[in-house]
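TL;DR need structure tokens for one chain.
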Amino acid sequence: MFTLFFVSPEELNHEQIRLTGVQAHHARSVLRVQKREMIRLADGVGHWIEGEVTEITKDSFTVQVAERGADKISKTKIAVAQALLKGDNQKAALDQLVQAGVDGILPWRAERSIGAQDKSEKWHEVVIAAARQSRRSLIPKLIPMTNLNGLLFACENFDVVIALHESAINSLSSATQISDAKNLLIIIGPEGGLSDFELDQFATGGIPLVKLGDSVIRADLAGVIAIGAIRVLTEEW
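>> reply
TL;DR here they are.
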């Protein structure tokens, strides 16, 4: 699998593409990219090129386009509303969601969230790094952080919304509406779980609770497990 770097959609249209700045430095000093090596460049919205490195300078390198393509479009777009987690758990959750193929991430401040700061810039860096690591040409959208009211309002943008909770009677596989979903939102609580008030608000909004088996899953792992299960249910994996 070729090493992946991101450029703008406009740059990706060129037949010769020159990379500079941080990415070029990383390629030269860390990854040791060599002349005539084949690499992949992507535009962050799903399109990519593969080409040969034709020139390397101290602060740049140039790629000659050999092939163009695009990532496969998923039948169901999946976004995850991830409650803020403490410490590195938030970073781990974001990284894993991107690798699992999430299309959008909505950080939200739950009542029991220990982490409360908006670290959008740092989170965006994590998302980009995870997209590169997993060779994804599409960088998942990082939606601005919100609270419960904002989350409930955002739910209107999806045709199917579910919330994961261990108290749910129905399992994920029994949520039949998922198979026909075009835009799906999965709501995940923090380490301390969803509060009774939040559960009441979801019930009032008609948002069903589902569970991932009988075990209690860590908050930073629940999203990636749910995405994997849904991709199997929709026959995309």
